[in-house]
Write a structure and sequence with these properties.
By secondary structure, this protein is α/β, with parallel strands linked by helices. The chain has 8 helices and 9 strands. It has one domain: TIM Barrel (Alpha-Beta Barrel), CATH 3.20.20. Strands 5-4-3-2-1-9-8-7-6 form a 9-stranded parallel sheet. InterPro entries: Aldlse_KDPG_KHG (IPR000887), Aldolase_TIM (IPR013785), KDPG/KHG_AS_2 (IPR031338).
Length: about 200
């Protein structure tokens, strides 16, 4: 079963990334990003692609430049997630055949991202915009365009966000915090999957 969930492993190190990724995949979360402001992120991404690239959508978060996009493309990554809406980054990502998930907050940013070819939108930070804000913005967006709530949306309020028009979620601290064990990640991932499956029926 494919779930519209992206795990954000912010702060992960190369030495631990494979164990935590395995916990996520075993639970049923098949998309993983390593933010580029994590320790040695390129090493972590390379290890993930080598071990799990065939079975999971692996990529980077906090992608800010075309050069970073090109490096990810050369590695075989599939996901490019950004905190901002940069048309050049979006266009380069799509030209390389990767998914582009730019960060947006306003209708102007949403429509600019769509015009640049974004795969979907990362509503960020979701905690500021809220489900009501998403519902209002959703009214002017293409109905089939996926919007993921990121930054403040979690398993406790999946249903509320889904009702407002969220197609999925990017999850950071709800799944992983630096220093936690793979067993803790597995437990968090299991809870997230249960919550997702309950509201996706």
């Amino acid at each position: 079963m494919s779930r519209n969930l992206i795990a954000i492993l912010r702060g992960i190190t190369p030495a631990e990334v494979l164990d935590h990724a395995a916990a996520l995949l075993d639970a049923g979360i098949e998309a993983i990003e390593v933010p580029l402001n994590s320790p040695e992120p390129w090493d972590s991404i390379a290890r993930l692609l080598d071990r799990h690239g065939a079975q999971a959508r692996i990529g980077a978060g906090t992608v800010l430049t075309v050069a970073q996009v090109q490096r990810l493309a050369g590695m075989g990554a599939r996901l490019v997630v950004s905190p901002d809406c940069n048309p050049a980054v979006i266009a380069a990502t799509r030209a390389a055949g990767m998914e582009s998930w730019p960060g947006v907050m306003t209708p102007t940013e949403c429509l600019s991202a769509i015009a640049a070819g974004a795969t979907g939108l990362k509503l960020f930070p979701a905690s500021i915009i809220g489900p009501g804000g998403l519902a209002a913005i959703r009214a002017v967006l293409p109905p089939a365009l996926p919007v993921y709530a990121v930054g403040g949306a979690g398993p406790d309020d999946f249903a509320v966000w889904r009702a407002a028009g969220a197609a999925g979620f990017g999850l950071g601290s709800a799944l992983y915090r630096p220093g936690q064990t793979p067993q803790q990640t597995a437990a968090a991932a299991a809870a997230v999957v249960v919550a997702w499956d309950a509201c996706a029926r």
